[in-house]
Amino acid sequence: MSSSDNPEFEPLTRKQILIIMGVTAVILLLVARIWQYFGSIKILDVQFSLQAVWLSLALAFGISLGSGLMYRIWPAYRQSADTYLELVIKPLVWPDLIWLGLLPGLSEELLFRGVMLPALGLDLTAVIVSSCLFGILHFSGSQQWPYVLWATVVGLVLGYSAMVTGNLLVPTLAHIVTNLVASYLWKARQSLNPPSL
Asked: Which end of the chain is more exposed for a tag (fewer CB within 10 A), N or C?
């Protein structure tokens, strides 16, 4: 992507993307831990069970299906998602996509669902507030509002799953799988259909 294709973004290198992902994850983890410490917040438990894994996979499937549907029927979302994904995924090589699944999935879920939900009351209002903030975290430019809107909806789904189950594993695993599926599918589509010059 060149600045002539989208003047709002300059292309980033693979190294820059990996550094940004790592630094962002560390910052989110630090914010979560500091908030937890000073707020005396008990984070949501992580409870490993087959039921939690299946629920996580079902959520990831539903979110991925919803995203695919939005991508097909809403041109503004398709353009927003392509811009964001091209900026983030295009410079990465296939094994890097594992980090794209793990780092945001772990750090964002610890902060937004693990710490923020209990801190705000672990109720529907907390889910809405944390989801709006989660959506804002995905803001990367004025043309990206459809992507922010979708991230907010995803935050509502993940937050609600955390509130209902009381298990941080459910939204975390769903988030990781969703990121992996979206990034691998987008990269595969770009490999099969390279843009013409």
From this structure: C
